[in-house]
Amino acid sequence: MTDTTNTDFDAIVVGTGFAGIYMLHKLRNELGLRTRAFDRAGGVGGTWYWNRYPGAMSDVEGFVYRYSFDKQMLQEWNWTTNYTPQRELLAYLEAVVAKHDLGRDIQLNTGIVSAVFDESRGVWTVGTDTGESFTARYVVTALGPLSTANIPEIEGRDRFQGRIVHTGAWPDDLTIEGKRVGVVGTGSTGTQFACAAAKVAEHLTVFQRSAQYCVPSGHGPVTEEYVAEVRAGYDRIWEQVRGSRVACGFEESDVPAMSVSEEERRRVFQEYWDKGNGFRFMFGTFSDIATDPAANEAAAEFIRSKIREIVKDPETARKLTPSDLYAKRPICNPDYYEIFNRDNVELVSIKENPITQITPTGVVTEDGVEHELDVLVFATGFDAVDGSYKRMDIRGRSGVTIREHWEDGPTSYLGVATHGFPNLFMVLGPNSAFSNLPPGIETQVEWIGDLIRTAEENGTTVIEATGNAEDEWTETCRQLADYTLFPKVKSWIFGANIPGKKNRVMFYFAGLASYRLKLDEVAEAGYKGFDLHASPSLTAA
Ligand code: NA7
């Protein structure tokens, strides 16, 4: 192992969600590096620490929304429902940390605010919001692609006298039982929250900007026999997951929608509607829902027909019915459209009737109506992917900041590294695979771990993605995205949800299997696209 410099740590990991926990395990327990992980939160868990809003759960089925690396835990960790609620996910991640004795190298309540690279030594200096600073040869950012809240500027927001909250920072003492609740936003989070809140709030007002395509989740209890069967089949399950596109644990269709009769299409859509799950509906029914406009319209029209069937009030049904492409991240819930048949739930289309201001007692819409509220919930999403990087002062070679480097939109090589920022690795950096996240995270953590291990063994002290490799990867991702319908609608996947943010590709759309092949290819070619130097000073050229 090289020890050319005297640093506080060999490696620093930023974040302790799914990615940071496994990265710390990999670097410390498997590679033997002196590693410390930091988190601004008061506990580990990342997304699953912060998102404690009523109804919060993963909407990818739980049997594949976990790590595959710990085979013993796969056999021992128990579950009782097919989707995993936030509390259980947090308990699971805490158990992984405890089992692998990671807690002693995790520093909580400590946000990383800066990371500056010293070219002459090949060392990063990382600064914290507690005023400390630490040096390390490697920094791995595991910031989470959805962790910097997007809160709209609405006049009067500070005047509201009830509780006002973003779903990504839900306080433990806030309950909504028996209260008048308003929610702005109808994405995965807003619809999930609405389904839960409808049943306990005195009154729920859903402020909808865009109508959503939503399919049933099929959420419910699982039997002990099912759990036993999954456990016995895990080797095969993970192999299938890694060999698939969206890695959600179901077989993806290879049948184009228009290759079958209309009657057959409807039968298939109905079958998958009954099974539940958003990703399965989009990628399991037919092969081209996300790529062929006609196939997409067939799926969209099926969902629209369900809205007409389910929602009793025609005016509410009209407002709930989307007319654009079905090309955002697919979402599912137990009974989203059904909640609008309840007397205590009201839908306000803020596209037709915008919010004009927030008053001390509620929200006023353009028609002059004041919607009186005790709790106002922003389920308005996140400054995705690069948002969490831009709020840190990250400086690479020649003092160039990551904000400058990403002025035209976030880029990377393979989603894990970026030119000019040597020895800085990202888990779920820009243009990582668009897939179920835990298998995507494991793929990257293992690959970064192998790269660092190789560097340590070979005496390489500086690892840097080349500018050419980064440009080519960005172009590949752009072309793949353009082959899909996703860039044609406005969503966080392309940064279109943040006012002023440039609309840029932020994911690799060819799927996890193809992404893994690409990573293998790069590693086998001696980490093609990376400059590997034995001496820091060589990078100055
Ligand atoms: P999303 O999917 O970005 O959804 C945010 C929602 O908030 C969406 O309905 C937006 O409407 C709405 N929104 C955003 N900004 C505003 C403003 N300024 N005014 C009114 N409404 C607004 O975030 P989620 O948290 O639901 O989900 C993010 C990911 O987390 C999800 O895909 C999963 O991967 C987990 P819009 O549709 O843009 O018109």
Give a description of the structure.
Keywords: FAD, Flavoprotein, NADP, Oxidoreductase. Pfam families: Pyr_redox_2 (PF07992). It is a single chain. The chain has 541 residues and is of the alpha/beta class. It has 16 helices and 22 strands. α1 runs parallel beside α14 and α14 runs parallel beside α16. The site of ligand NA7 has 20 residues, from α5.
Provide a brief overview of the structure.
With 541 residues, the chain is α/β, with parallel strands linked by helices.
| Average pLDDT over all residues | 96
Query: Termini separation (Å)?
Result: 26 Å
Unreliable runs, pLDDT <50, ≥5 residues?
Answer: none
What Rg do the Cα atoms give?
24 Å
Q: Quick one: how many beta strands?
A: 22
Shape: globular
Attached small molecules? ligand NA7
Give the count of helical stretches: 16
Helix content: 25-40%
Determine the structural class based on helices, strands and strand pairing: alpha/beta
The major β-sheet equals: 8 strands, mixed
Q: How much β-strand is present in the residues?
A: 15-25%
Keywords: FAD, Flavoprotein, NADP, Oxidoreductase
Domain FAD/NAD(P)-binding: 10-219
Protein name: NAD(P)/FAD-dependent oxidoreductase
InterPro entries: FAD-binding_Monooxygenases, FAD/NAD-bd_sf, FAD/NAD-binding_dom
